[in-house]
Amino acid sequence: MLGPFYNHAMENPATFVLVGIPGLPSSHLWLAVSVSIMYVIALLGNSLIVTVIWMDSTLQEPMYRFLCVLAVVDVAMASSVVPKMVSIFSGRSSISFTACFTQMYFVHAATAMETGLLLAMAFDRYVAICKPLHYKTILTPHVLLGMNVTIAVRAATFMTPLSWMVSHLPFCDSNVVLHSYCEHIAVARLACADPRPSTLYSLIGSSVTVGSDVAFIAASYNLILQAVFGLSSKKAQMKALGTCGSHVGVMALYYLPGMASIYMAWLGKHAVPLHIQVLLADLYLIIPPTLNPIIYGLRTKQLRKRTWSLLMHCLLEH
After folding, report:
1. Are β-strands 94-96 and 15-18 bridged in parallel, bridged antiparallel, or unpaired?
2. Is residue 173 part of a domain?
3. Is the pLDDT of residue 73 over 90?
4. How many domains does the chain fold into?
5. For residue range 2-13, what is the model confidence (pLDDT) as tens digits?
6. Domain containing residue 100: CATH number
7. Which domain does 190 fall in, by range?
8. What are the residue boundaries of the G-protein coupled receptors family 1 profile domain, all occurrences included (predicted)?
9. How many angstroms separate the CA atoms of 311 and 49, rounded?
10. What span, in angstroms and rounded, lies between the C-alpha atoms of 36 and 153?
11. Whole-angstrom Cα distance, residue 115 to residue 127?
């Protein structure tokens, strides 16, 4: 009974080797610098948003609470890959077996949470614009908590079977991962067994999750646009469109490169060069956390004013 499991465990390597961007080793130095700069901006920007929303009693509407959770998820998503990515670009490319699958779990769980939060934020805008008189009665604190818990549970429910399937594959040959983080398809392709069950699960699960979220988001914004263009005041129209514009920009940053990355990885290097696949997958995890706070900070007037007020207060105190 114990023999097959013992042999399977012994076959797995103690470490994996991440190559960074395959075929572009000469670019690793400037990539390390660029990624580090974006990571610092992401940390500062998202931390500032969380701090402002947490400290300011006037920013307690559901929209800002969702934005606060999104900022925390963005920091977690970037932090799960960027420090290791920079060390790879600097020449330290090994990662332990356990650390690799831990990274895989948190990276993909964070991306699943992000799409759920974008859907929740679209629903928030729908209620605020289409049912303004019922806004506070629909989006109560208990409802917000339930939505956030549901988003987290859905991400864990999706990722737990995937991580289990990939981590229980036998790895008895190469331990060189042609990627800059433990992306599940890149790792699964190293297995001695057939990786198709896990890759199919990932493709179908991602397509269903993202596809349903995008469909509901599109339906929400269709109703929002109908309501906005039905307003008699041009000023009210522009205010509503301005708030929704920031959301649409964030969604485009997330969904377009994200889905392109998933399908490119599935098609393989024969369809799209491997270095393009890896670069897109890297940027998909770094650019949204970097730009989300900038977009929301610039496009949301109340948040911009409160952030500027907090910064000026801190500067004057020092």
Report:
1. antiparallel
2. yes
3. yes
4. 1
5. 334 334 444 567
6. 1.20.1070.10
7. 16-317
8. 45-296
9. 12
10. 31
11. 19
Residues 96-112: tens digit of each pLDDT: 988 999 999 999 899 99
Q: Is 135 within a domain?
A: yes
Q: Are 253 and 291 in contact (CB under 8 A)?
A: yes
Per-residue model confidence as pLDDT tens digits over 28-44: 888 889 999 999 999 99
* Pairs from 198-201 (Cβ < 8 Å, separation ≥ 24): 198/162, 198/165, 198/166, 198/169, 199/266, 201/161, 201/162, 201/165
Separation between Cα atoms, residue 123 and residue 206, nearest integer Å: 21
Question: Would residue 8 count as lying in a domain?
Answer: no
Convert the pLDDT of each residue in 223-233 to its tens digit: 888 887 776 67
Residue 260, token pair as written in the block: 């392109």
Dist CA 286 CA 191 (whole Å): 28
Q: In this predicted model, which residue has the larger pLDDT, 241 or 123?
A: 123
Domain-embedded: residue 26: yes
What's the mean pLDDT in 160-164? 90
- As a whole number of Å, the CA-based R_g of the chain is 22
Secondary structure of residue 16 in the 3-state scheme: strand
pLDDT tens-digit readout, 124-142: 989 988 888 899 899 999 9
pLDDT at 8: 42
For residues 183 and 285, is the Cβ–Cβ distance under 8 A?
no
DSSP class of 11: H
Tell me which residue of 284, 225, 283 sits closest to 258, measured CA to CA: 284
